[in-house]
Amino acid sequence: MTHGKAPTTPRSTLVITAHAGDFVWRAGGAIALAVSRGEKVTIACLTYGERGESARAWREGRKLAEIKEMRRTEAEAAAAALGAEVRFLDAGDYPLPVTQDLTDRLVRIYRETRPDVVLTHPRDDPYNGDHPAAARMALDARVLAQAGGYPSEGEAIGAPPVFFFEPHQPEMCGFRPEVLLDITPVWEAKRAAMECLATQQHLWEYYTDLGKRRGVQLRRNAGPHLGPPHATYGEAYMRPYPQVTEELA
Amino acid sequence: MTHGKAPTTPRSTLVITAHAGDFVWRAGGAIALAVSRGEKVTIACLTYGERGESARAWREGRKLAEIKEMRRTEAEAAAAALGAEVRFLDAGDYPLPVTQDLTDRLVRIYRETRPDVVLTHPRDDPYNGDHPAAARMALDARVLAQAGGYPSEGEAIGAPPVFFFEPHQPEMCGFRPEVLLDITPVWEAKRAAMECLATQQHLWEYYTDLGKRRGVQLRRNAGPHLGPPHATYGEAYMRPYPQVTEELA
Amino acid sequence: MTHGKAPTTPRSTLVITAHAGDFVWRAGGAIALAVSRGEKVTIACLTYGERGESARAWREGRKLAEIKEMRRTEAEAAAAALGAEVRFLDAGDYPLPVTQDLTDRLVRIYRETRPDVVLTHPRDDPYNGDHPAAARMALDARVLAQAGGYPSEGEAIGAPPVFFFEPHQPEMCGFRPEVLLDITPVWEAKRAAMECLATQQHLWEYYTDLGKRRGVQLRRNAGPHLGPPHATYGEAYMRPYPQVTEELA
Amino acid sequence: MTHGKAPTTPRSTLVITAHAGDFVWRAGGAIALAVSRGEKVTIACLTYGERGESARAWREGRKLAEIKEMRRTEAEAAAAALGAEVRFLDAGDYPLPVTQDLTDRLVRIYRETRPDVVLTHPRDDPYNGDHPAAARMALDARVLAQAGGYPSEGEAIGAPPVFFFEPHQPEMCGFRPEVLLDITPVWEAKRAAMECLATQQHLWEYYTDLGKRRGVQLRRNAGPHLGPPHATYGEAYMRPYPQVTEELA
Amino acid sequence: MTHGKAPTTPRSTLVITAHAGDFVWRAGGAIALAVSRGEKVTIACLTYGERGESARAWREGRKLAEIKEMRRTEAEAAAAALGAEVRFLDAGDYPLPVTQDLTDRLVRIYRETRPDVVLTHPRDDPYNGDHPAAARMALDARVLAQAGGYPSEGEAIGAPPVFFFEPHQPEMCGFRPEVLLDITPVWEAKRAAMECLATQQHLWEYYTDLGKRRGVQLRRNAGPHLGPPHATYGEAYMRPYPQVTEELA
Amino acid sequence: MTHGKAPTTPRSTLVITAHAGDFVWRAGGAIALAVSRGEKVTIACLTYGERGESARAWREGRKLAEIKEMRRTEAEAAAAALGAEVRFLDAGDYPLPVTQDLTDRLVRIYRETRPDVVLTHPRDDPYNGDHPAAARMALDARVLAQAGGYPSEGEAIGAPPVFFFEPHQPEMCGFRPEVLLDITPVWEAKRAAMECLATQQHLWEYYTDLGKRRGVQLRRNAGPHLGPPHATYGEAYMRPYPQVTEELA
């Protein structure tokens, strides 16, 4: 929307995730695209995924502190590969508790980063309760951050659009691709970020295949002016709020 | 999408409706916006709405041919006010039959107009069976027109995005505003087109109010950079197919 | 609604069903209640259920004409037990075709009976395609009968409320009890009508049990002023259109 | 239902809302109608809406206590204009916490007011988390209040019907008008109550338009006996529990 | 699945319920069937249903401790009649709180019993908040018990299939029979277990009728090779997770 | 179900598809598995997919008869590779018409093949209207074939379970994997059948990837006794009718 005056600061994207690896598999392309346009991306990881997403490390007998450090190091490398800033709230996973204190910390991040776009998990996931917990706090904090009367530092924000990124088992989470994002130009950056996550190496090919499949679907829905059928990579998103636009396209 | 070379012809919008007045109340803003950008808009009215949407004329004792002529004249004036071309297929309303012949006529219009965007009714409407009938043929014809093997004149088309415009009782038709289009710049044109429909004068204020209400909702969802709260008018749409995009916004 | 003047004729109920037995099992209580209030009830059976609902008769080697006659005789006895008029359109079942001619015959019945209430099948039934076919024609005809321009005998009608009665396997048909009707005062009449259907004797106890179960549910939802827990019988319905009322209760 | 003996006390309606203004915009007509029939209406406002629904006051630099006082004064005037009693639980908004203590306070109000009808928010609202929080506690307390074993003062109640009133963005909250209440006879009282809410003056016309629109829809669904098309005002509701009735209408 | 080596221990079923009687009415047949195959069944009752499910006892003026003892005695007798072990967590009902401590106790039971099959309540029940609370903790604990990093005694488990048993008002809880279990061979055992629950004698016939009705539905869906129509009893279940199989049948 | 006597003939599977290639991509594993157990599989292709699924052939300038012959030859080779019989009804695609005559031809095939299991398309597909048309006729014919009174050759059949196979864009067709079939033992046969379809070579890798992905999901849902994580291939299905079983697993 261009009713107001153009912002003098670069656009800002806020990504809120449950675990340290989520932003790579699910939104790495969107992050790299925003960075490639000169925009700022901030990733808030509520936990390191130290208990629920580090099965191999536990089987290898590692300790909690060690695992958290491993996950942190990997995630920082992946964020660097994408050109984004990552913050860890270290709230403890499996289960990630939904608390007012944690929600309040997210409100402060909203008011500091003042996002133009918000990315987070969808509301349902029968395979991992931390994902809905993160989504709920991300959505609640976004609404609270808009209220002038909410007693947090920083000025109240506007109502940034929200995109839910794709869960691991989309059909079981009520996930329907409503937005297909063409991430072909930044595919190499996303792949590089994935390869920073050594503890989840079994997912590299899986999410490369997913990127191709969403690319096929993207081309199938891309309308009359798409060029020749070269390799396209895509990411899928849902919108919990209506798209606001000045042109149907 | 800009993968392919830019089209040398202006963008084309195809609007397929059941009755002569539908394109004004439901999509007049989108049509006027496209025209204001120098694009071409073609409206295919499957019927004049002579039986189902002309209650007052029947109460006044008018005859079928006379009513069809009235509706045609009004609709042509409204299309002119919006800057669009309107065609009448005169298939007979109440009920509008779903036939392969009529679907085939729409395939030919798709291949001739080669739309970049398609607007039509949503799939369900418990108050008016003609609307779903029109939607079904519009959607079927769009798929058939894409098939190289379909035996119609003209070259196969791509897969243009489709938008469902808002029905009269949205909540009863499963209609959820997924896209809010800002039609403020062309509001006067839409109002002028509405005023061409003298036989439905009771709807002028009703749809002016709806435009305002969708404008309020648009501002509420418009994100951080929207300007001061002046009068905004909106139209609401649904997408049956995923949005394809190069940027989340 | 009492905005207009009170009608001088008794209230009229129109029941449209696919097969000859449906009105008994599914709406016998509602019919008997209306009759008990001095109202007129007209049942339009689109078929006798001669092919799809007469398994035993076919196993016994009976012929088509004989089976139709049996079903007709039974249904007339059941309608008499309820105090309603029954008409047979003899459109042929399994499959019941959806045609404009048959829909048009229903329009004429709407305009003749001028119903205050309409009862029919719900829209979906994966076990019997005739039921959705009947529902579709019943709903389409109701809309057409309201149009002044529709070329049928009789004057255009208003918009009578519609109730979907309960299918045999409710959970598989998307049926949710939205209205629980207390049929306790006329239970004996419903049971007597069921016993007129000798060819489906295996259903007598089944639908008596269902009546009790809906009665239990009715009491559970009946609010603070319901009396002592004596035997209550109920029937369940859905509303495809909103209830219009002058009081929330 | 009239199975039991008629209650000797007037009928009682309990309205449970998140914020001080909700009962006016969403249910003012239902409240005024009940009062006009000599019934008692009690409104339980869980908060004053001091943080989330008082944007202008915060922009003007007012303090928390001052804002709460303003909202209280306005709401009491509006309740008086409708003829209802209002109570404030002052639980703190944005976010309204879901707690067992607050639920327990509602149980006591249920057992004291012994409602025949309950009005509250629908279960979902992606724009305001306080509304679902209020709905959840209102619904939980209603179930607890029915249990003889629940350790609260007062006698266990029956199962009063519940109506969800209309949220600000109905289509985004899964709200479908299932009940259309004719509030024409008390429209002036609802408008007067709205005008008591000076801090939300921008909503007066908005909700007047909504009342008209629901009135149009009401007439469209009102059946055959509705009178001439004079101005009708309506309010829309949903039912989470089945309607129990002795007559289909 | 037979990829791995056959387990040397008998198969294990874990049933998690809110109240002491739930396992009898809703899953008594499944429990008795498993026992009849030589398998082990463990029932974890989160509460005795002392406040919410013991209306008659409260009306008779009994005290809390007495009611809990009555319910416990009855439930132990019913479990014995079915051949299963029952454990009581005594967490307090109406409302049953959702807590991390209680969830953790369930994790320990998962890791101890190592279930091959899990039975619990469906996720929604507008008539009883304890049922969804129990379901939520049962599902959360199942996921946590699978995580190697979760700090509980016992080894991480696999992902046992889950079945939701049928609630009292299925259609109001979004319950659709996805699995129909033939419990005819153990019907007598289920009936005997029901008769252990003297405080809920009014439900004996109700759930006998339900067993028959699900039996009728079972036969209707049972495919081509079902034998003669003798009395069949059934129980209905839903699956929140996909069925994994080596053969479509 | 084993209530009746064991059938003396081998089990029979009937696969009904819109186009010649569908049975390979979507159900090749299920077909090969059934054949590997000594069962009979009959595939009824309603069309060759000559217009809608043969884009490359049309671009190469081939004629209709030639394309039909190519598709037939390929499909016969693929069926042979799977060990199944294939029949072509040559009803004409794009659009595949829904007619009573074609439905009747399917009734005869049901009564001849007497299937224990039926596989077909899901009910919705916004990308290809032929798929829902085929599904509708397959489902209607199955119900008609069960009616003793339906005037077709052959004896009435029982009610075989139905499985919907996975469409090309599952999330857009409301497809949720309800059954995950382990096709690892016959993967090579499915791949060989795919390679018979030279005109759709671009899909070989796509559906190999899909098989792997469904295999990953299968293992994730496979419960506690699955063996070591070797390569697993899967196919996903939905059930429109309840599963009938003697054991929860």
Would you write up a description of this structure?
Chains A, B, C, D, E, F: This is PIG-L family deacetylase. Chains A, B, C, D, E, F: GO terms for molecular function: hydrolase activity, acting on carbon-nitrogen (but not peptide) bonds, in linear amides. Chains A, B, C, D, E, F: Pfam families: PIG-L (PF02585). Six copies of one chain form a homohexamer. By secondary structure, the first copy, chain A, is an alpha/beta fold. Chain A has one domain (12-223, 231-238): 3-Layer(aba) Sandwich (Rossmann fold). Helices cover 38% and strands 14% of the residues of chain A. The first copy, chain A, has seven helices and eight strands; from the N terminus they run E-H-E-H-H-E-H-E-H-E-E-H-H-E-E. Chain A has a seven-stranded mixed beta sheet, sandwiched between helices. In chain A, helix 1 links the parallel strand 1 (12-17) and strand 2. In chain A, helix 1 (22-36) packs parallel to helix 3 (64-82), helix 1 packs antiparallel against helix 6 and helix 3 (64-82) packs antiparallel against helix 6. The longest helix of chain A has 19 residues, at 64-82. The first copy, chain A, is globular. Mean pLDDT of chain A is 93; it is low at 1-5. Chains in contact: A-B, A-D, A-E, A-F, B-C, B-D, B-F, C-D, C-E, C-F, D-E, E-F. Chains C and D meet through helix 1, strand 6, helix 7 and strand 8 of C and helix 1, strand 6, helix 7 and strand 8 of D.
Could you provide a short overview of the structure?
Chain A has seven helices and eight strands. Chain A is an alpha/beta fold and about 250 residues long.
